[in-house]
Amino acid sequence: MSARLLRRVLQEREVAPQDPDVADTEQQEDEEEEEASPPRAAARNLFDLLGGGDDEEEDKEDEAERNEPLSYTEQRHSVQKKPTNAVPETNKKSKKKKKKGKAEPSSTKSKDEQSLDSILEDLSIEKKPTHQRVHQSDRGAGKEIETNEDRATSVLAIDPKHLKGENEMRRIFGSKVVDSFENQRNMPSSSRQVRGVRRVAHNPRKTLLVSPPSYWPPWDKSISMDLLETKSGLNYFRYTFDPSVSHVQELFEAAKAANDLNAIAAILGKYPYHPESLLTFAELFKYSGEHQSSADAVEKCLFALECAWHPLFSPLQGSYQLKYSHDMNKPFFTALFSHMKNLDRRGCHRSALEVCKFLLSLDSDDPKGALFCIDYFALRSQQYKWLEQFAEEYQCDNSLWLFPNFSFSLAIARFYLERDAASEGSDHADKSTSVDLMKQALMLHPLVLHKIVDKAPLKDSSWTQILRNVFFGSAKPGSPSLEHMINIYVERHYIMWRFPELQNLLKEAALLVIESLKQDNREAQDWACVRKEAFSSEKNEYSHLLVSDFSDTTPSLPPEELRPFMVGPGMVHEMPPIEQEGAAGPERLRAPREVAGRNPALVFLESLLPWVDYGDNHHDANDENNGD
């Protein structure tokens, strides 16, 4: 046996041990072929291509890769010069022959896999998926990491394709329209940029919730997220400030207590991603009518908070909890809720639904009342089947169909599913009809009808006759919690009842309720008992939820309410009444400010305020004051 063949056999035995009989047979075949084959010449005979098969083609490719052809003796000499741990090139040819002749290696490999699987079963060891891997820092800290795959595939699973409003806008209006709007938004304008201040463009970090523009500053890494504990397959997280910027929150609390907006602007000038300062400006812009600036501040806050996510915190998996009881987590809930309302205002109802699902999955206690608007977004985005599935699978203290919003929304969803089934020719005879569900909703919550007629409003004369009925006319909520829930439902969903087909459905169900009560009045008492048992608390359990937070309209503050925020806290008492300011002329209403020698970032943030002016007349005003 030659040295080359011996070396190859030893290497094969080290990689995968085989049957000795099979190995000897293969060695003998290789030796016979090696002795019988004549040395190759540099020039090949073209007639050999007729019967060469795969081996000849493979040899031709190997020779084409070399710079110049080599003889057989030169090839053997070059192989002997190679180190012992190198695999010879002739292994390709031998492996090809093995595949042609016999299938022993594959059978041996399958036997090895079967034996390995049996060993793993005996040891009760399972293969872990890749998404359950954790960082070494968490393992070193002794924290037990668990994942809940069932929760990831639950009814609250988030679709990342529908999470951003820009994607939904592109599906509605087209990419060209949305791209042109984004280009105009990113271009410098007089209202967003002060003279002498240039935006520095860079490639922003890609995030899941928002699309940051290029002129936003890079994330300052002032916030991080820590893993607190793992319990029942859920990982509990909490936001924390970096120790180097922990004093910023104290500065914000002091400025907030003094109503000093300039101090908050100074914080944003140095720390542009401070969450609560951004949310403060977002609220101020919203009440002053600057809705786009308010939405930008909210998205900027979400961008910073998302950049701080822990590697194990992912909305796409679902095995997480971010408790609202921690003060550092509250800005994320507030920003998500505001972002959801902004998406709804833009008409991106499907994106608002995905954000609402994310908000509801953060904390099982639902501190922001996502349950009272998730059905609305499902109806507006035409996710009727998902809404029925959600009502069946979501775990809650009471059945969801007892809530006023779900009792009526499930009837609406069934109405549209019946209409789609009729057009497709299918049948849903095994389920209750939409009229029956709407009748049950009216029997359970009769007070909703009167409020919907007033809020929508429904001006048909037939509604006046229906409301004259004793059952609807003298309806009472029964408990403070239920009354608050009804007010939230009417404020959030009243626009749905402006569709004529839903008005006809509501009218048909109301007339059926009146007819059934004429035949048997005890049915109303039975539903009253159900209502009293489901909402038996004497206190308003949802008093922390404001009805105005679920409204489509945003009230604007009068000028006298905004005046305390225009100057520092010590100058409020020195300002004259607003009537005197108006009588003094329009030049007194302007509050020009100096730009030279100030922080450009602070000047830029200050220029966003609607009452700040950098006009040319401030030099004249200063000259007059100096002359006096």
UniProtKB/TrEMBL annotation:
Residues 21-36, 53-65 have a biased composition (Acidic residues). It holds the Pfam family Tcf25. InterPro entries: TCF25/Rqc1. Residues 1-148 are annotated as: Disordered. Residues 124-148 have a biased composition (Basic and acidic residues). Transmembrane segments: none annotated. This is Transcription factor 25. It comes from Urochloa decumbens.
